[in-house]
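User: I would dearly like some help making sense of a protein record. I have put the entry right below:
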Amino acid sequence: MTVATHLSRVSFLDRDQSILAFNERVLDWARRTEVPLLERLRYLTIVSSNLDEFFEVRFEPHLSARLSNEQRGPVTVQSYAAISEHVHRLVDQQYQIYNSELLPLLEKRGIKVVPHGERNLRQRRWVREFFTQEVQPLLLPVGLDPAHPFPQVANKSLNFIVRLSGRDAFGRENEIAIVKVPRSLPRFLRMPGVKGSRQVHFVSISSVIRAHLGDLFPGRQVTEFSQFRVTRHSDLAVDEEEVKNLRTALRVGLQHRHYGRALRLEVSAGCSDFLSDFLLQQFDLPPEALYKVAGSVNLVRMTQLIDLVDAPELRFARYQPSWPIQLTPGQSFFDRLQQGDVLIHQPYESFDAVLDFLREAVEDPNVLAIKQTLYRSGSKGEMTELLREAVRRGKEVTAVVELKARFDEEANINNAELLESVGAQVVYGIVGLKTHAKMLLVTRREQGRLRRYAQVSTGNYNPGTAKLYTDLSYLTADEALTSDLEQIFLHLASQNRLSRLQKALIAPFHLHKAMLDRIEAATQAAREGQPARIVLKMNALTDEPLARALALASQAGVKVDVIVRGACILPAGVPGHTDNVRVRSIIGRLLEHSRVFFFQTGSQEDLWLSSADWMNRNMLRRIELAWPVTDPSLRRRIIDECLEMSLADNTDAWLLQPDGVYLRAQGVNSKSRAHAHSAQAQLMARYGGKA
């Protein structure tokens, strides 16, 4: 039997099921008693937010297969049923944790969301007054009849369906009405407390409206009702080849995003079959799309409650990143980079240093040009404002703005328009490809010649998420690498053929093949009896050619370690197939986001950092960047902090089993319990930030 035939029997794991399994690992943080209570609640909301995005982006083909009774291919009636069953199970676990664990614990700590039946007279008066003055004027109930069809209901909005007895003003028995709740209303409110009590009482906006639904239908009686929320397909589809102005086309698309195809219907647990069947019919959804939940239909909005609670002891202690160890406050970045490259390990070290690098470039009269890619830079636009100031100071500024960064389209359009308004050169990358590479290039005149300085990163230029995501920023004055970056920017702006690069790898041209070549080199080394090892750290591994190459490498004897936060289709430890593959997922306080690729081939060791996960879209449908790290001290530091510490983690790590199930490392190895090791906690302590 040949290796190729042997490999053909390996079944890759299902990507969508792997995404849901990732959310089960996140949900585990909501169960952990050692985690502060409000943070447990926050992890619950994170899972809800992730599930929303899963439906909005990944689920539409499965629903189409269900409705068309598709029986063949990767997306079928069966895949719809399997995913629906998994999501239902996950949602049931969420609400069980919410109702049976978190709410009782919050009440013990004096924090209570008070339902209508438990409000005292003073609280009921307060709720009625708030409803009358602040809520009722914004509500417009729609009674359904041939002249009043079912209204357009926006994606993920809160609504009520009401069944009425009696007749309307015209003597008709139209019994169904819809009440849409404006997004402008706060989802939670703090109520007056009981005198002398230390408890803090809250009320949800849905409870406020529910208690006074009858006020919206004078002369009629509400016989039954339910909250409901519909999740819609929200991935923007724009034919870039056909549109003349991508920015204008995306603005139009954003207006319609909230009304895409309905995919999921959430209702209250007590919703009658009559009302739920009516809603399913209106949204053209099968029974499996119905989710009856014992609580708010939108747990994501619980984040507002978390923000309203003033209880620092129920949150993680604030972590203050340290200043990068390779940098001296006040020293010129240009002087420092002439001495060697600088690595910033975020958020253990502060992202503010990246902002300061750009700020120095803006203020330095010797800097002539600044070029930067912007994928997710946030709505506050701190970097955008620095680039605008650079234009005002007479510098040439080029910004490659990715308008199609999912769910950040509007912020990026606004940033692009702000830059154009002062005269910056704004381009939108290459038609058909998202620009996901993170590059900042500064050109400076020094002693009669031009010299380049650069910052490249595994993560985004967003000061907010830079405090929550682990990423690596790399600052350099390396002539070969900065020359490569210049060529890439020229390619993105002019669309001319990309010149031969000296150090960098760029997708979709080189990166995929280069990674396959390095896996093959390690595979060949193992066959020849030489040392061979591959260690990969990324967010997702779903590209089949790369996964297949890793399985082949494993069969040849290469030791393969994959540290993957989310989806992974590569099975681990399957006898005779992936015996030498280990897959682990780190789910910690911080979102693991760094991409690090290590290859040992005989005596040769290569280390790469990248903006790209090992997904087909990253390798073939995006502009992505990878660059080698050759400085011995920085290589050692990256291997230690990103790879070895993650491989030793027995607290936040989950290990993929041969049957496709993830188990916590602490449970797999009983000896590890005596020596708890959290990579994130140790790095926080190492860098001296206040945790």
The chain has a mean pLDDT of 89.
